[in-house]
């Protein structure tokens, strides 16, 4: 840890009230839950908390001010004398000492955290409790030797419907710079998350890396419209296929399927192909769309004029 006075931005004559005020301000601004995009937030927060607890320990602060211990609570070598290390009287030690009676009114970093933790939400309280988050770990003041875990890396990956339907892998680019080939789970759903253990951000304090959380998003398809596990597709047909009937092929995620159009097919309704939807759990609905010759056709126009004048019929109420 750096000089604790510098960390908190206070003078060496700072009172307990000034220490508490400085800590509250810095802890709120640097809390990991408020700085999720900053991989160094945990380290900053740990150093701030360590500095506060150091300076509010009257015994340690006195030893530090007299030059008997360093900012990590370790004894400074001052030569031999009186059967021991000079100036220590056998009391200097690197581990955290119990608060003296005169310091019983001090607030620890944990006490102050509890005052404003509810503003970060219940999940934050769980993560920042001593059981799940030790702000002193790795800061030279540790009550625990366990270093903090790195942040999780959240990534959204676009998956093609064909790849999701058939299974396979997708390339995922992580914020750590790695590119991984990730297996797509069977029957994956949009919004489903895949956890890659240890592939997240590295720990700023030498602990285990976080995980990579991959959120699946289906890529927009050029032909199919997804409705849950059902698919919808527009199928163009000619005028004579609609009038005379025909066998046509309809695109599916597996390639194509042949269907038979009856003469005079009703194009206002979609044709249902059972089991041809996503994962074969849904259906495919084909909407027929009559297309006329591009650029027009004189014979067709002549025929239509004949129908209009000689064989008119009503299609609208």
Give the SSE map.
Elements lengths: L3 H5 L7 H15 L10 H15 L2 H8 L14 E2 L2 E2 L23 H8 L5 H7 L24 E7 L1 H6 L2 E5 L5 E5 L9 E4 L15 E7 L6 E3 L2 E8 L1 H6 L1 E7 L2 E7 L8 E4 L10 E7 L7 H13 L7
Parallel strand pairs: 3-7, 9-13
Antiparallel strand pairs: 1-2, 4-5, 6-7, 8-9, 10-11, 12-13
Helix pairs in contact: 2-3, 2-5
Order of helices and strands: HHHHEEHHEHEEEEEEHEEEEH
Counting DSSP E segments of at least 2 residues, the number of strands comes to 13
- Total number of helical segments? 9
Radius of gyration: 36 Å
Tell me briefly what this model is.
It is built from nine helices and 13 strands. The protein has helices at 4-8, 16-30, 41-55, 58-65, 109-116, 122-128, 161-166, 239-244, 298-310, and strands spanning 80-81, 84-85, 153-159, 169-173, 179-183, 193-196, 212-218, 225-227, 230-237, 246-252, 255-261, 270-273, 284-290.
Describe the structure.
With 317 residues, the chain is an alpha+beta fold. It is 26% helix and 21% strand. It has nine helices and 13 strands. It has helices at 4-8, 16-30, 41-55, 58-65, 109-116, 122-128, 161-166, 239-244, 298-310, and strands at 80-81, 84-85, 153-159, 169-173, 179-183, 193-196, 212-218, 225-227, 230-237, 246-252, 255-261, 270-273, 284-290. The strands form five sheets. The chain has a four-stranded mixed beta sheet. Helix 2 crosses helix 5 (109-116). The termini are far apart. 24% of the residues are buried.
């Amino acid at each position: 840890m750096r000089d604790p006075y510098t960390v908190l931005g206070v003078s060496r004559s700072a009172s307990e009230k000034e220490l508490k005020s400085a800590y509250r301000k810095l802890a709120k601004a640097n809390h990991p839950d408020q700085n999720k995009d900053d991989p160094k937030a945990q380290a900053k927060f740990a150093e701030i908390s360590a500095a506060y607890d150091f300076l509010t320990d009257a015994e340690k602060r006195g030893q530090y001010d007299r030059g008997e211990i360093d900012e990590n609570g370790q004894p400074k070598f001052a030569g031999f004398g009186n059967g021991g290390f000079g100036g220590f009287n056998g009391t200097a030690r690197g581990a955290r000492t119990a608060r003296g009676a005169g310091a019983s009114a001090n607030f620890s970093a944990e006490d102050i955290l509890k005052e404003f933790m509810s503003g970060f939400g219940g999940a934050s309280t769980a993560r920042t409790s001593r059981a799940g988050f030790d702000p002193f770990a790795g800061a030279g003041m540790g009550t625990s030797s366990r270093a903090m875990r790195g942040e999780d890396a959240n990534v959204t990956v676009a998956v093609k419907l064909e790849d999701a339907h058939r299974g396979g892998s997708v390339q995922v680019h992580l914020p750590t710079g790695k590119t991984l080939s990730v297996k797509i789970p069977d029957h994956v759903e949009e919004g489903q998350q895949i956890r890659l253990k240890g592939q997240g951000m590295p720990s700023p304090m030498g602990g285990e890396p976080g995980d990579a959380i991959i959120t699946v998003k289906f890529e927009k398809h050029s032909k199919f419209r997804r409705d849950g596990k059902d698919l919808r597709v527009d199928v163009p047909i000619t005028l004579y296929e609609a009038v005379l009937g025909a066998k046509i092929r309809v695109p599916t995620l597996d390639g194509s399927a042949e269907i038979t159009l009856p003469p005079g097919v009703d194009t206002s309704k979609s044709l249902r192909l059972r089991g041809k939807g996503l994962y074969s759990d849904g259906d495919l609905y084909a909407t027929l769309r009559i297309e006329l010759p591009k650029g027009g056709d004189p014979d067709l126009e002549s025929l239509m004029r004949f129908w209009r004048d000689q064989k008119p019929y009503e299609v609208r109420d």
